[in-house]
């Protein structure tokens, strides 16, 4: 069974990390979203940045099993809402986490760096002054 088959069987994905541990950017959340699966995650660390509560999934309070159960029940009892969150997560993943988005962001970084370097090189500064400016840019 491949990962696509696994995600196609899920109605939602619960981020399996302990709900009180900080997790900044788990790949499983982005993978689930890219397959249209809404995510239920603890409201801790960077998870709230990935999961838009009520839009691409649901967040629960860290360590609160009753709140987690409430969020699971919400998606289970409301399949249309669950599907809508899955679609919204898919669109977010496509917009922010796809290969195209990554290449676009990386290209912007390179273009900005090249522009700054060209502007620095065009001045009549000494090599030492240019070196200090390049160090400041990279910080």
Spell out the blueprint of helices and strands.
Elements: H1 3-9, E1 13-14, H2 27-34, E2 39-42, H3 47-50, E3 57-60, H4 65-77, H5 79-96, H6 99-121, H7 127-138
Parallel strand pairs: 1-2, 2-3
| Major beta-sheet overview | 3 strands, parallel
Helix content: 55-70%
What count of domains describes the coordinates? 2
Uncertain regions spanning at least 5 consecutive residues: none
User: What overall geometry do the principal axes of the alpha carbons give?
Assistant: elongated
CATH superfamily membership of the largest domain, which one?
Glycogen Phosphorylase B
> Do you know the CATH architecture of the largest domain?
3-Layer(aba) Sandwich
Structural overview:
- By secondary structure, the chain is mainly α.
- Helix content is 61%, strand content 7%.
- The protein has 2 domains: 3-96, Rossmann fold (3-Layer(aba) Sandwich), CATH 3.40.50.2000; 101-138.
- The protein has helices at 3-9, 27-34, 47-50, 65-77, 79-96, 99-121, 127-138, and strands at residues 13-14, 39-42, 57-60.
């Amino acid at each position: 069974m491949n990962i696509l088959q696994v995600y196609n069987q899920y109605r939602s994905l619960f981020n399996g990390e302990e709900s009180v541990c900080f997790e900044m950017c788990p790949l499983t959340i982005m993978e689930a979203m890219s397959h249209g699966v809404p995510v239920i995650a603890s409201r801790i660390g960077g998870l709230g940045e990935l999961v838009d509560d009520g839009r691409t999934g649901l967040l629960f309070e860290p360590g609160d099993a009753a709140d987690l159960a409430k969020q699971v029940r919400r998606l289970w009892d409301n399949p249309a809402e669950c599907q809508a969150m899955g679609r919204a997560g898919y669109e977010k993943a496509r917009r922010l986490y796809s290969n195209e988005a990554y290449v676009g962001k990386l290209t912007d970084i390179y273009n900005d760096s090249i522009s700054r370097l060209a502007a620095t090189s065009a001045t009549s500064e000494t090599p030492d002054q240019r070196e200090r400016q390049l160090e400041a840019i990279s910080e």
